[in-house]
Amino acid sequence: MRLHKLAHFLITAFLLSFVGSCKKDPCKDVKCQNGGVCTDGQCSCKLPWEGNRCEVDARDKFVGSWRGTENCGGSVETRAFSIAKSVANPIAIIIGDEIRAELKSSTTFDVPSQQIIRQGVAITVSGNGSLNANALVLNLSFSSGGEGITCVYNMTRQ
């Protein structure tokens, strides 16, 4: 009788392990690109990549010409600038010709504190921005010689 129970147990254990191994791997046919990792059939992408297979560079949404308003302490003016992808940093964009920003998500970025030179004067700039469809909001703080100002840019893709 004991031998019969042991045989039954072994057969049951074998069948359970065999049936369990028949589960289809949801990532078997999923090929994530650019360092993305498949989990439960979905790609999890590393910045700047997005898309079903991590095939889309999120920086492309920011690249181009922008036009809108600059509000610096109540003084509102019309401004235009362009945004390009950084060649040196895969998660960075360049605002204008000199302000470096780094993606935090596929629609937001930070402008780390950095120095730019305008008309021979060193200016420290920092801030952040966000994109909603073709609308870009950019918040920048500028300081030089102990004085500073914060500007808000509401821009539309051109």
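Above is the first protein from milestone M3; the second protein from the same milestone is given next.
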Amino acid sequence: MRFGFFCKSFRRDVTRVEKLVASIERHVAGDVAGILSVPRADLALFRDRIGSSCLRLVSDEEIVGKRLKQNWRTQQLVKLYAHRLGFADLWLVLDSDMAFIRDVGASDFVDETGSVALVASRWLHLYDRHETELREYVRGQRELGTLSIEEARSLADGARPDGEIPLSSRLVDAVWSTSPEARIARIRATFPRSGPELFYLPAAVWTRESLRSLETDYLEPRGLTFDDLIRHSPWEGTWVGEWELRRRLPGRWPAESFFLHFASDDAIERARAAGLTTADFAKRYVGLQLAAGHQAIEAY
């Protein structure tokens, strides 16, 4: 299997991407396909700053096939359409504010049978939200109850058909300004299942086969596109994760997140005060994410 990375960025985060690239060059060995997508207007800037690196530069417009207004939703569209590049069979979906903290390769995400990890956790790996539990997890003092493959495959409700995406929801959202968080439940209504709320980020592991299946088996027969998914519920990681559960995880196995996310400087300072080091985090994670839009600290 061809293993890779995909990162969507833009000019505001170029210094973060420099740190990400440095961490890839330090910790990743072997034949890895890396793609960095930025707006066409930012290509020259990124070429100047990262040069000929481990990530191949492409434009958002090349991937999606049209001009995009840069915002949270269009970033998700670029990630979803990236599989059409055919650059890899499986890839880690990276954000600009991530960095690797230990050596990593395809074997971290693919088992001996060729089955690929699917991040699907009962816990959001956000230190700010679950500080005590994640600190104990890092120190080996607790486990997080990761789904077994049998449990994950039992969640899909085969008695109910796939749900539809009504055009009327656009009118409802326009009138009532439905929040993005309120729309998450729509995804489970589209792909019915039982079981707990699950989290598919940070650092999802996607496969080309999965994204192609979502397009050809669900979207195209209904005359829909990834754009329609994001309008209905702007959570690309949840769409892909729930689709995989709906398919009963063919060639996949459930895993905890491979990255730990810090959303504030205060959380980083508390983790430091607790004595946690990158070596400690590396026992459970391959990297850290320090939220670019909310922090001054750029390295743990």
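Note on the second protein: The chain has 13 helices and ten strands.
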